[in-house]
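quick one before i forget lol
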Amino acid sequence: MSRMMDLVVLVTELTRDSDKSYKEINKELALRGYSADEIEQARFWMAANAAGSVATTALTGRNAVRVLNKWEQMSLSSESYGYLLRLLNLGIVDIEQFEKIMMRIIPLGPEKIHLSEVKAVASAVVFDPSGRDLESELFDDFDDEIPSS
C-alpha cells in the first residue's frame, strides 16, 4: 500500500498546476517504474476521492497548520511530519484522516517514528478507512511478542 500512496502523491504533484498531458505524465510515471495498472488504480482512487478532499480543504482552510504537542515533537521526525503535511496540503488526506494517522503513530513508542512507519499507517488510513487491516496487523504483531506460558 505504501507504493500506491507514493504513486498517488506523485500523480497529485505532477498534475497540480501542470500543463503536461495525460500521456506525458503516464510516460514519466512509467520511467519511474510504475506499471500501467498501478497508474490507472491511482487515477481511479484519486477520481473517486477528490470531491471529499476538496470540500474538506475548503472548509478547514488550506493555510492552517497543526501545531505538535511536546510528546508528538519528541516522537515524530521533521521528515515524517513534513510528509503528513504534504499529504494534507495536496488534499490526499483531510483533517480527520490526518488526526487519525497522528493518533495511530504517536503511541508506537518514545523513539522517533520512521518515515516508512508513517507511510504504512497513512496508506492504511487512506486506502482502508475502516482501519481493519491496520488494527489486525498491529494486534498480530502484539500477539507475537507475548511469550507463551
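fyi DSSP finds eight helices and no strands in the chain.
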